[in-house]
Structures are given as C-alpha cells and as structure tokens.
Amino acid sequence: FVLTSNGEVLIEKHYRGVINRNICDLFWGEVQKAGTFDEVLPIITTPKYYLIHVYRHRLFFLANVTSEVPPLLVIEFLNRVAEIFSEYFGEVNEEAIKENFVSIYQLIDEMMDNGFPFTTEPNILKAMILPPSVMGRVLAGVSGKSGVGTELPEGTLSSIPWRKKGVKYTNNEIYFDLIEEIDCTIDSNGMMISCEVYGEIQCTSKLSGMPDLTLTFSKPNILDDCSFHPCVRYSRFERDKVMSFVPPDGPFSLCKYRVNQQASQIVMPLYVKPQITFHGTTGRVSIMVGPKQNMSGQTIEGVSVTIPFSKNVNGVSLQCNFGNVTCSETSKTARWDIGRLPKDKSPSLNGTIQLSSEIGSEEGGPTVLVDFKVVMFCASGLKIDTLNCVNERYKPYKGVRSVTKAGKFQVRT
After folding, report:
1. 308: which residues sit within 8 A by CB, 6+ positions away?
2. In what order do the strands lie in the sheet with 313-320?
3. Whose CA, among 81, 184, 263, 356, lies 20 to 30 Å from 198?
4. Which pLDDT belongs to residue 36?
5. What's CA 390's distance to the chain center, in Å?
C-alpha cells in the first residue's frame, strides 16, 4: 500500500491472496497516536499481520507481511520502490502518482514476483518499462501500445545485471558526491555529549564500455557499518580497504557508511550559543550563531534555528540582527532563518517570552534545533585519493564534491 499523509490509499497491490483494506485503518490509528510521522514505529505487530513501513516523500510505503521475514529486507525493498519512483517521475507526490498509475503498477509487477523481490535495478527497469513522457503518452494513445518492452534487456542474465552492454560516451567522466550528516547533541556549556556522522557516496557514471574501477581513500579506516551497491566487491574492500566495482550507467548510490571516530575528532562547522532563562512568568532569549575558526574560506549556507517552546508560553517577542524570524502560535515554535552565514558579523537573536500565570515558570529550557549545509567540506575528513580504471583504454575524468549537512543537530539550553 501507498498512503498519503492524510491516510488516503493511493496504491494497493496484492501478491498472495487479497488483504482487506481495513488493515490500513489500523495502521493509520497507530500513526495518529504518534507525535510526528517520523516517530511511528517502523514495524507494527497485529494479531494476524506484521505492518512494516517507511516514510518517504511525505508518503507512507506500507507492506503487510503474514509470516516472519527479515524486516530489514522489507524496509530496503520499500526504500528501493521509493527511489525507483523518484527515478521515473522526478518529484514523488500524490499528484505524480495519480498521473502515472499505469507505469507504477507495471513497475511494481516487475520489482516483485509472487511476494519475492525480483528486478530492482533502475537500468534494467528503464529498458523494460520506458519512463513516462509527453511524446510517449501521445504515441501510446495513437498506436495503443503500452510502454512495456517485448524483449529482455541486455545484461539481465549476466553476472553484471546492473550494467547494459554497448554504452558509449564522447567524454568519459564519473562524478562522486560525498554527503555527510551530523547527528549531534551539545549541552548548555558548549560541551559535546554525543556525535555521530553518517555519510553516503553518490555517483554519476558516464563511462563507455565495461570499465572496472578501483577507488582508494585517504582515511579508509574511518568507514564503518558500510552498506554497498551490489556492484562493489565486498571481499576486496574487507581485505584492502579499497572499492573495486563495475559501475552502473547513470546516477546511483555507491555506499552508505558511519564514521568510526571519536566525537572530539569530528570537525564542527559552526557554533550556537543559546541562553534561555525564566523568571516567574517571563523569560529572555539570547542566541548567537557563527562559524568556527577552522572554517575560514568555507561558506555555510541554509542555516536555520528552531526553538520549540512548551504549551504554557502565551506570547513571544523576538528580534534578530540578521535573517528573518517567524513565530507560530499553534505549534508553539519560533524559526530563525539566517541563510548564508555572514563573515563580517555574528548573527544574534534576542527577545522575551510571556508564560501563563496559572502554570508558572518552566523548569529547564527547550532544546534548540539547528540546520545548515556546507559545500566542499567533510566533517570526517574523508577524501577520495585515486581512481584507477582497467579493462578500457581511456582514462576517465574524476569529479569530487563534498557536502556536510545537519541531521539531528541539537543544542540544549
């Protein structure tokens, strides 16, 4: 099942018997019990079924399982379905799904056979089921033909099913994006309580023929809990800490990893100094944000600070010397959008809070949530060292870009 954020069922597909749609009402009841959509348990047990879901693109992808299966297998398949929809339709939302019902059911039929995952590689799927286009819809309306190919694509039965034969490019190039997210908790004194960095290496391959690539890193020992694309030779990585693979054609995710480093070795791009104090039925807010000294020359953009207040806050008056601040009375939150951090001054936010006289003053301040993005910067210090290509005569052009973003970046007050 695919459900909207309002609980409406958009897609349903049954493989072994028909499951009553009332199971979605049971699932939606569990969703409403949770505070936010991200807090819904990924696996919900019922007397008859296991409900396993992922929340992607503001949609719920729900699988009903009647027997015990590895839950990570189901979660990975649901994530792969969401990624395939994104590959085919670009932006995945309720409107895009309603416009492409036929293509979606064709994809689901190919991706799973009688309840077993079957073909999940984008290159093979695109060879069998053409991505929707305006011209394709016109031809289908005139000729009456569907977008499903009549022949199996090349490479389906080979040992490298993710890459088709006969790929040719004028310029042979491959691009790597190192994307890292920082999950961090900082106490009121500025000391780091916990810090984890999760990363992903995304690739876009435009290489001719059947190249066999070897990728080396400057600090390979920090890569831990790696999840590879099927093209990566796992035994080679375990032995030599290098990635050896024959890449698919086009964009794909090469590897996901966790950084195995102590918190003190993680480079923080900015500092946030919040001070929220309460006296009786009033309170004061003072927050300063700025880049760390080691970030000279780097641009920190997309900076925003969210302050979730408690329910006994009656009024908030905030002013900032840079950016814009908005306060929501319904959700009791204040959001300070800074954008790109300036280098000539430190942005600051100041103001007062009015508390309900019936409840009295708060105990402890709220936890401030921070969001940011830094281009050409890796918090872990991971760098791609060399790229070697064998099995082809050309030397590919290698492009590398690093991006560090905030995951759950929390600062206590």
Report:
1. 331, 332, 333, 366, 367, 369
2. 270-279, 282-291, 348-355, 313-320
3. 81
4. 81
5. 32
Buried b (16+ CB within 10 A) or exposed e, 384-398: beebebeeeeeebee
**Residue 162: which region, alpha, beta or left (left: phi > 0; alpha: psi -120 to 50)?**
alpha
Residue range 270-329, pLDDT digits in tens: 999 998 888 878 888 999 999 988 877 789 999 999 999 888 888 888 999 989 999 888
Phi first, then psi, for residue 412 (nearest 5°) are -85, 150
Q: Which helix (H) or strand (E) holds 408?
A: strand 397-412
Which residues, in sequence order, are bridge partners of residue 157?
A: none
User: E strands of 207-269, at which residues?
Assistant: 212-217, 223-228, 243-245, 250-259
Both tokens of 259, joined, read 């950084």
pLDDT in tens, 325-360: 998 888 889 999 999 998 888 899 999 988 876 445
Map tokens 């590897």 to a residue: 255
Q: In this structure, is the dihedral angle defined by the CA atoms of residues 16, 22, 28 and 33, taken in order, positive or negative?
A: negative
Residues 203 and 175 sit within 8 Å (Cβ to Cβ): yes
Contact call for residues 254 and 228 (beta carbons, < 8 A): yes
Q: Any idea what the Cα angle at residue 224 is, between residues 222 and 230, rounded to 5°?
A: 120
In this prediction, the residues of the chain whose per-residue pLDDT falls under 50 are 358-359, 361-362
Residue written as token pair 């293509």: 103
Find tokens 């709220």 and name the residue: 366
Tokens in use for 373? 């993005």
Which residues are paired to 386 by β-bridges?
216
Strands 173-186 and 397-412: parallel
Asked if residue 269 lies in contact with residue 291, where contact means CB atoms within 8 angstroms, the answer is yes
> What does the DSSP assignment read for 323-354?
SEEEEETTTTEEEEEEESPPSSS--EEEEEEE
Strands (E), 260-344: 270-279, 282-291, 300-308, 313-320, 324-328, 333-339
**Helices (H) then strands (E): counts for the chain:** 7, 23
Residue type at 11 in one-letter notation:
I
What is the amino acid identity at position 385?
D
* Phi, then psi, of 385 in degrees rounded to 5: -90, -70
